[in-house]
Design goal:
Chain lengths: 251, 269
Amino acid sequence: MSDVIIEVSGLHKAFGNLEVLKGIDMSVKRGEVVCIIGPSGSGKSTLLRCVNLLEEPNAGTVLVNDFEMTDPDVDIDKARRGIGMVFQGFNLFGHLSVLDNLTIAQRKVLKRDAEEAKSVAKENLRRVGLEEKINSMPSQLSGGQQQRVAIARALSMQPAVMLFDEPTSALDPELVGDVLGVMRTLANEGMTMLVVTHEMQFAREVADKVLFMDGGVVVEEGPPAQVIGDPQHERTQTFLRRVLNPVHAHD
Amino acid sequence: MAMSRRQRARTFRGVQYGVLVLAVVLIAVFADWGTIRNAFFNLDAAATQFPEILSTALVNTIIYTGLGFALGLALGLVLALMKLSSVGPYRWLATIYIEFFRGVPALLVFIALGYGVPLAFQLRFDIYSTAAISLGLVGSAYIAETLRAGIQAVPPGQVEAARSLGMSQSRAMITIVIPQAFRIILPPLTNELILLTKDSSLIYLLGLARTEYELAKFGREGLNATGSLTPILLAGLCYLIITLPLGYLSRYLERRTGRKQDEGLKVTA
């Protein structure tokens, strides 16, 4: 088992004439938490979505968990089982209860029996602090609760790595903390995580490595103390000034 | 004479009521009530209709419609998936089928299946098969378009979530998309069922044995036997027994899904 779990090299992605990713090289080691920050339109969500091939890159390779995602002959469904994904819009299955949201893929994809799937689901609901919502429908939950259920759903597949695509951007401010708390616990338990986020405080405290992206390239990367605390590039400095102190961002 | 806005509104309403009262009075005075009652509310004629109008005609109408709807639903689902296929020829075939059967009168389909096919191919179906196939062919064209719209109304994030959990495209379609599409289209689907119920009356053309009578044919036979319009009125009322509750169901479902979607939006917003 190699030390590196995600290896992206020479990644290019364009939507029509719009070039969104212009040659990305990056990697995530097992057990690492990597945060991707950057202005909107910088390509960070597209990069994340290329990792589990929700977007198909135009060039470059993506290796995840010893699967070459970009190989046309890869068993993509099998490869994705090991990659948990949490979306900005939660994307819980609206017609299924919380329990069924957590068990359906276990049963249909991993072929677990009902009993086992349910116990895994319960365990993961407990991890996100929502055991009592097991029989609720998604529409009965707050945004923060929905997102925690979505995290539990991804965890129920026992993935080797978790991808988070701006998981708190759609939440009311008072609900952000619960979701970040769950993610922090996950990180402390040693889960490998790749997180696109605007939460600088979270990135600073939880990440092992921070990538700053702008204009489809990785401008700067390193430990959070360096990238967020003492950015070297002017673009990073400008971005952080705007994000950390929005009221006084005159420049 | 200049009138204020209120005076004008009052005068206008007064005239409308005046016309209405005049019409009612004229009808009451000049109508031949004896003949009308005899035509529409002839109790002797009505008595001859029972119990077969319920035990045979109503039941058969429900059976023909149910069979047609079941076939239409199955065929409609296949057509909807064909229409969304990435393979061009599937899309074209589905489009041609849908446009054809939506565009021709259901009556023509019944004639083709009831008389045309037996003559041309020496194939004779029993009446239930003919009814199911004819109604299914016509219904599937409408149902396919409704279903396609429903499938496309399921947010793409649902498929992305399913795929990222390792489900294949078809697995995601079956377990995640289609069930939600059906919830979305339940109200329009109920309306298709109402239309199909009424279209089932066209079977009367095909020459039915007495046990195969549906409501329209039964009413017509009643008319011939009694010379009264009462059987026709009764048949009409029996259609309402089916269609009115369906209509209420459709509107209830519409309100419910509308409310659900509002709730969903509130949470995601």
